[in-house]
Amino acid sequence: MTNLERLEEAGMIRPGHQFSREDLLLLESLSHEEVGALISVKAKVGEGFLHRNVSGDHPPVGIVF
Amino acid sequence: MTHSRRLRDKIRLARVELDSVATALWTHPRLPEIYPQFLFRNHAVIRASVPLMEAAAAACQSSMDSDPLTAGMFRYLTHHIPEEAHHDDWVLDDLEVLGVDRGEVLARIPPPAVAALVGSQYYWIRHFHPVALLGFIAVLEGTPPSVEYFEGIADNTGISRKAFSNLLRHGMIDPRHRDDLDYALDELPLTEDHHALMGISAFQTIHLLARVVEDILDPTL
Question: What is the ipTM for the molecules in this complex?
């Protein structure tokens, strides 16, 4: 099972979401444990890619280090 | 692909939850009312910045003979620790502008979500590998506050700009800190296992950071 399939099965990817080839490569480069962590924290995967080149689309959360 | 680009792309992959919470926070209709709560939580996180890096530096120092990664990471941390010192005071200054006493802030029990966020890093550092902390820092310093945006928030809400000094100062210094981390990452001899741990730490940080802020937005808490 690919990482994409695992995440789709867990409901972490919006149905019909289209990844670029580059993003798919990144997704498939994640380790088994990283994909497990994404599922564990119920991270919706991929939406951030949509905003890759859009600055100011979301404000930063503001919790700083 | 560079090490830093790889980590940044993973963060972008998973950060939608954090972006959604951030938008809900900064567009909240009662922002002046909840802003002190936000600062309290920010203080609870930021008071742990230097101690966390010191813990990671100590872990690096103790394994330098056997772990080729830790010397470079130790150099980065010992350079960065003084840069982050006393930033918790900036948040206390902001709270004082809003009429909140410093002693009151320090005496208040921090939120469990903050303990989970910071505490998980102590676990990785002390019981597995300190490289996890770089995933945490990459999230927290990865999107520097925009000075223009937060000046606008202050002016539009009627909150004094003086109560935004922490965010405005970080808006000026964090772009360099982000770049310093990227440079350090690119120089480190990172393995696939290191990348996996930084990724897991970053994903966990995104999730727990969102919990820290969501608490403020939930009127039942």
Answer: 0.84
